[in-house]
User: Fold this.
Amino acid sequence: MEYEISDKLKNVHGSAIREIFDLLKRGNIISFAGGMPATQTLPSKQIEGILQNIISKYGVIECLQYESTLGKALLLEQLKSFLAEYKGINAELQNMIVLSGGQQGIEFMCKTFVNKGDTVLVENPTYLSTLQIIQTYEAKAVGVSSNNEGLDLADLEEKIKTHKPKFLYTVPTFGNPTGGTYSIENRQKIAEITARYGVMVLEDDPYSQIRFEGEAVPSIKCFDKSENVVYLASFSKIIAPAMRIAVAVANPAIIGRFNISKQSTDVCSSSISQIVVAEFIKNNLAEHLKNIIPIYKEKRDQMVNCIEKYFPKSFKYQVPNGGMFVWGYFDNERDLLACFKEIVDLGVAYLPGTHFFPDGGWKNTMRLNFSNATLEQIEKGIKIIGEYFEGGNK
Ligand SMILES: Cc1ncc(COP(=O)(O)O)c(C=O)c1O
Assistant:
């Protein structure tokens, strides 16, 4: 039978990352391509402990029944203190909805606000699944240039005037893919400019707790006087992706709309996951973060030291102060997409940077994930890539 795919989906291609994962399944490849937490940081013992008596402690209804779409009261209570303590955000019950991962928040923003033909502004480069979601809603992603401070504010204002976007999507702390962090002033100005033009902001913040050095920076949401900012925090990187738990913080009118969006998507997030995350925030999170940050810092340091040792000097990059990625580029016109498969054949994978740009191009860029490989794999993999490029290949 010939399947007639909807207009919405027929031009949406699988995420480049997913296809690369399929390629990597063929065996023994060192991968710097994904964005997965280190297996050794996944809190298996603590979660096993919570799960062991979860039903006798909370009861069958609380654990195994459908739950309110907005989220469990016991999790929302923990989220309120988590947001205040870790993110500097004061949220009341009416400002929060529990989501099945931060990705669901990006989807709901589009589902709720975006019509066919609309424009969404994104930082250039941006998280590639966001590009895929925007495409699914038949909207156009337009990139805003960035600089060392964060977004190029003149370009932001110009693009707001030209494109009248539905919202701006941004990952301002240890961004994906660049690992960069916007300055406080930049965040303040983004809040001001978008409020002035009545443009919403989707601030996606899965990485800010994974900080190796420097002071924490307030979120854009902290400067949100007109309530045009929707803020997302996820527990995938700081507890475990399998929890599929995140929270959106926004004006109650937006939360109400997300509630309607979620009813038709998945009814509610998993009750068991919500209880586990609530217990974990209450009893384990502070200590867990203290344990995992040095692990990630060591991996970051290893990757940076190996880049210095093995990569040609024409490779430019910034050392990230946190998160999971090193972003870099060659200052000549090397095509890192074209040589990707050859390098996979040598046993190592990175992510070609072109996938993160709404208009493609930038083929001399790459994203290197340091969180998932072991220290030995980082040395081996970076050496292989470095030798490939040092050998004059392109
Ligand atoms: C910037 C960004 N947003 C959202 C997500 C999705 O995370 P979640 O597991 O919370 O859906 C990721 C995952 O890598 C990410 O990097």
In short: The two ends are 43 Å apart (CA to CA). DSSP finds 15 helices and 15 strands in the chain.
